[in-house]
Write a structure and sequence with these properties.
The protein has 8 helices and no strands. It is mostly helical. Helix 2 crosses helix 4. The radius of gyration is 20 Å and the shape is globular. It starts with 19 loop residues before the first helix and ends with a helix.
Length: 293
């Protein structure tokens, strides 16, 4: 299972057909797994061509701590790249909010920015290596879209963007705490079930969108501003939290198994996409609960 966010083709930290979080842990009993167990074993100059953790007796699914070394991805790398990517989103959103008034023209620009961001995200998803320029450009266009969208919601439900930001922070913080506490174990079965639900959700939403476009689902159908829309929004936010757990697992495994430093950009890319997903759904949910006030 490769994906950990709404773009299901994102490779994360696996360079084979598997998911690094599930395929790279040492086998129980301390048997060395060699190059087959490490997704970076085939990369030139990788000091982990054989599994350095084979004698630690680590159980399957729990990556060990990587020894001190240079050239590999660290948590500081992930934090720094994520801050740059999310910062670009914020700057783009602030500029769009300040410079683009609520108008049909702005809506058109926002849709165009969203389409460009989607195309850039798909291009990066199918690239074998991370492209910092591509990721930051995606973040800039995503920010423009979010800025116009947030201003539109704020014009009708004052304070909704601020509440959505707080809600996004609360969901991501709670998910991280639950993950770090070990209350959620990201296993292959967990990922399969969650991804099945996520794919089904997106397919249903796509059908719902088509029905709305052709006038067969009045008031937005499942995405209405009523109780049904609220239930769908809550489910979407829960799926966003699920994507976050997969992101956290991939980051943890990438650090433990010697991912190259440039892989931190993929971590930033995935986290940004997931947080944008949660923010948009949170924005809609705040608007629904705010009513017409």
């Amino acid at each position: 299972m490769r994906s950990s966010n709404p773009v299901f083709s994102r490779r994360g930290f696996s360079r084979d057909n598997g998911y690094a979080g599930f395929n790279t842990a040492p086998q129980a009993g301390g048997a060395a797994v060699g190059t087959q167990g490490n997704p970076y074993a085939q990369q030139g100059g990788n000091p982990y061509a054989t599994n350095p953790y084979a004698q630690q007796g680590v159980q399957h699914g729990t990556p060990p701590q990587a020894p001190a070394r240079t050239g590999g991805m660290t948590m500081d790398d992930v934090v720094m790249r994520s801050a740059m990517t999310l910062g670009t989103v914020v700057v783009g959103a602030v500029l769009a909010w300040a410079l683009l008034p609520v108008s049909p023209t702005s809506y058109g620009l926002a849709i165009g920015a969203a389409l460009i961001a989607f195309v850039l995200a798909m291009v990066q998803s199918f690239k074998r290596k991370a492209s910092p320029a591509l990721i930051l450009t995606y973040a800039a266009f995503e920010g423009v879209f979010l800025g116009v969208l947030s201003e539109m919601f704020n014009s009708q439900w004052e304070g909704a963007p601020f509440q959505a930001v707080l809600g996004t922070m609360a969901v991501s913080g709670a998910t991280l705490l639950v993950y770090k506490a070990g209350w959620i174990r990201v296993t292959a079965r967990y990922a399969r079930i969650g991804m099945t639900i996520a794919i089904a959700f997106i397919l249903v939403m796509a059908v719902n969108l088509l029905l709305v476009v052709f006038g067969l689902a009045p008031d937005g159908g499942l995405r209405s501003m009523g109780p049904i829309g609220a239930i769908v929004g809550i489910l979407a936010i829960l799926l966003g939290a699920f994507f976050l757990t997969l992101d956290f697992k991939q980051i943890q495994d990438g650090i433990a198994y010697g991912a190259p430093r440039e892989e931190a950009w993929l971590a930033a890319f995935g986290l940004t996409m997931t947080l944008v997903w949660i923010y948009i759904e949170m924005l809609r949910l705040v608007a629904i609960f705010s009513g017409d006030d």
